[in-house]
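Notebook p. 47: complex prediction with adenosine-5'-triphosphate.
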Amino acid sequence: MVNPTKSDITEKIVSLSKRRGFIFQSSEIYGGLNGCYDYGPLGVELLRNIKEAWWKEMTYREDIEGIDASILMHPRVWEASGHVEHFTDPMVDCKECKARFREDQVEDSECGNKAYKGRKASKCMAEGKFTAARSFNLMFKTHIGPLEESSAMVFLRPETAQGIYVNFNNVKDSSRQRLPFGIAQIGKAFRNEINTKNFLFRTREFEQMEMQYFINPAEDQKYFEYWREERFNWFVKYGMQPERLKLHVHEKLAHYARAAVDIEYEFPFGWGEIEGIHNRTDFDLKRHTEFSGKKIEYFDDQSKERFTPFVIETSAGASRSFFAFLCNAYGEEEVTKQNDDGTTSSELRTVLRFHPALAPIKVAVFPLVNRDGMQDIAHNINDHLRTKFKSFYDDSGAVGRRYRRQDECGTPLCLTVDSETIYDNTVTVRERDSMKQERIHKDNLLEFIRAKLDT
Ligand code: ATP
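Predicted complex, structure tokens below:
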């Protein structure tokens, strides 16, 4: 196994992402738009698979319902939630080079002047080059209707959670759920981050996967611990190496929270939060009751008590998890290559070891050579498999090269039609991770692949 340096890995992942069609810079032909990215043909599959794995885990159970709330909401929502007042970051500017920083991130940043490459921004700050900190609200504003007057101003939501709280009564009444129960949502969120960096880690437009679990306040510790375990285990279940995950308990809590823990992943640039689990108490439901004048409460038939439920929130970034799954899958290793003259040599293979459920393409189908009807057989197999899995046909270049191309996009299985297929209807199935090959009868392929992919 080859161990590229950590800073190398980020660069390699960014370049592989573009080359193979995972991630493109937004509006690239116009020079790009900072902090915004587009998902390419493979990226969109991976992202959908991550969201699907989360959705199944979180909503295919009796006590959780899903919703999809609108991105634009009544502006009072954000007053009630505290975002208008508190969702700010302290911003400082360098008077000399004009670079802008989030004050609490100056320590980790470099001076913006290219002539001082490698110089710490904290040094410039200590030398008095920075302005005083100013508060900057991270919510994007826009207007409803043709007049840009403040009464018609709305925000692009900075989190999906509020769409869940304001629908608590609707979901409770329509689904007839009893406590404890949760509401889950996947959707876009927008934050006008002062600095975007580290590729997909901090972007201005991103997707969240959030679930708010409504409980009796007496049970808050129990469910906080339950969801902390569940969510940590979900990342492990989908292939994250446990030693690259850790829990970070918050000492300093937000004004509404009673407990908070982050699940952090060890990215090539260091540890970073991928999901937060928070005990948000009854803060949000009470604030919406106060601001809307509509009661958001729960009546317990057994104890005959009426109360405002507490909320345990699990808040994951779909895009940030995408980046973490990509880093986690990335590997390079020396492998032995069969040369055309019968000799062997070693070569470096790049492989994305995605969990099969997350892999963008599940199976690739190749004819060994483009003659003797092998292409037709391979096309037929691919047409059949394509109705069940995302599959891919490739007949260009040496078969070894085709394997490498599939390794690089994380395809778990490659099937090769060769001269034996013509006689006995078997094909070679090659596994991505072990690179082991075995022969399987054409008629048994579907069952075989299903078992291997565990789908
Ligand atoms: P940070 O401190 O990194 O700004 P946060 O603590 O404000 O993040 P939360 O509000 O808890 O983040 O958001 C929940 C999840 O949403 C995070 O764990 C992360 O996965 C994702 N997320 C938040 N901000 C961004 C962003 N700018 N880009 C991509 N994902 C984000």
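Notes: The mean pLDDT is 93. The two ends are 29 Å apart (CA to CA).
Next step: compare against the earlier run before touching the bench.
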